[in-house]
Design brief:
Blueprint lengths: L9 E13 L3 E12 L5 E3 L14 H15 L2 H12 L6
Antiparallel strand pairs: 1-2, 2-3
């Protein structure tokens, strides 16, 4: 369904490339399906808000894990980044 007019008259319109960073598998290239509304010509893509916040590459699972580590164990973003590198092989900036 179109996000703008709720119409079912949509067609596939290519892909958007994104890089998402997961906790277990690290940095991953993802193709997100784009659509165009035949009624209004508006384009939109598959909703990924259950996985990532808007304009973010870090998954919600990774963010929750980092918040948990900061509050319970490590106390700083630098230590969290070091532990992600050590245990998961994910290199991220603090």
């Amino acid at each position: 369904r179109c996000h703008h007019c709720n119409s079912r008259h949509v067609v596939k319109y290519g892909f958007t490339d994104r890089i998402l960073i997961f906790k277990e598998i690290g940095r991953t290239h993802v193709k997100v399906q784009r659509y165009v509304c035949k009624r209004y010509g508006k384009t939109f893509q598959t909703d990924l808000r259950s996985l990532v916040d808007k304009n973010s590459n870090f998954t919600n699972e990774l963010k929750n894990e980092s918040e948990h580590l900061i509050s319970d164990y490590l106390g700083s973003l630098k230590n969290v980044c070091k532990s992600f590198q050590k245990f998961f092989g994910i290199s991220i900036s603090h």
